[in-house]
């Protein structure tokens, strides 16, 4: 029996828990690679194939998430994905070598590629527009917190126990989530039986794999030449996929939502904001550990302020959007977000802890507001019949933005280090990285200024004075 949606509905929380499990699993493994490589008698570099395989498999499955939800039912697909993710986690823990580990990670990636998009689709479809801001605020916290807590948590687990528990941790979390998902989530099945668009799927998935593969190579500090070729090939294939899907009768992803101005702005201009959002949690832990020589615990004390900013903003997101509306919030918050990222370049050894904590808190809070606003605006004015295609497209854009943000941070650090002929990272490299990420975060402001004053008003509840 499904619960009727209300302000206290468990649906967004259930989806958020599943998404947190998935996103945490994608980042927590990083610090455990050396111990895992030792167990498998291989190198951490070789074992990083498990991370890449996971990411690319997610990219392959995202395009078909909407079609599967419509065809087999959203609850069926979501619960099946959670169950497969739990099984794959157990297989990861039981892996005895590189081959079995990579296979288990591919299975995990396939489940993750369906779990998050379908979960978000369930929330968007089940939520009245007046409650959408609150619901989105709940399901975006995993994307804000998981990249920050993942690496230090992975280090803690591998230090006090062993790497197997990184994956076994998903069993109780996923099991509880699966139980409530089966009881509480609605079964949403489309009455229309669309044929599966094989060509569109192959073109879209191929484009994502090439793009993310190239960005991953850049982020990992590998050869730039082949990475650029992969990215260019991905862009070319993606351009072809867009042209094809605009003409196709039953495209794997319906792009009609791009005709909605708020959706287009949230995904095109918003992509630049997501790049800056993704770069920050990648750069901040590295800054404290690589440039300041702190251990994971010491760096975690500083990151606590950043996480508190992320979480604290959730308490006031809805009233702020209702008072000022999407346009004003995105314009001013984007400026604050970009400037606060640039301000992190001022962090230096000897800076008082309180000053540093305040800077990180403001950066985390503005990041949270930006991400929640963009995610909510994405679906604010999209007609119900277009939400499946809109959700799949938004999921792809989000994944590309996060990958590009990590790649941007890695490339900036590498280029800065090369220009000064250094062999190790120092604070100068991080200053350039924060400045460039902050500038990118400022660029969407002009696009947000072109939004109507009542953009997404049905969702935010904001009514401009002229419209009263």
Q: Tell me the count of domains.
A: 3
Q: What name does CATH use for the topology of the largest domain? A: Growth Hormone, Chain: A
Biggest beta sheet attributes? none
CATH superfamily annotation of the largest domain? MFS general substrate transporter like domains
Number of helices: 21
Spell the H/E element sequence: HHHHHHHHHHHHHHHHHHHHH
CATH class of the largest domain equals Mainly Alpha
Q: What is the percent of helical residues?
A: over 70%
Mean pLDDT: 83
Give the CA-based shape: globular
**CATH architectural arrangement of the largest domain:** Up-down Bundle
Report the portion of residues in β strands. under 5%
Q: What Rg do the Cα atoms give?
A: 21 Å
**Class per helix and strand makeup:** mainly alpha
Note poorly predicted spans: 1-6
How many DSSP E strands? Answer: 0
Distance between the termini: 41 Å
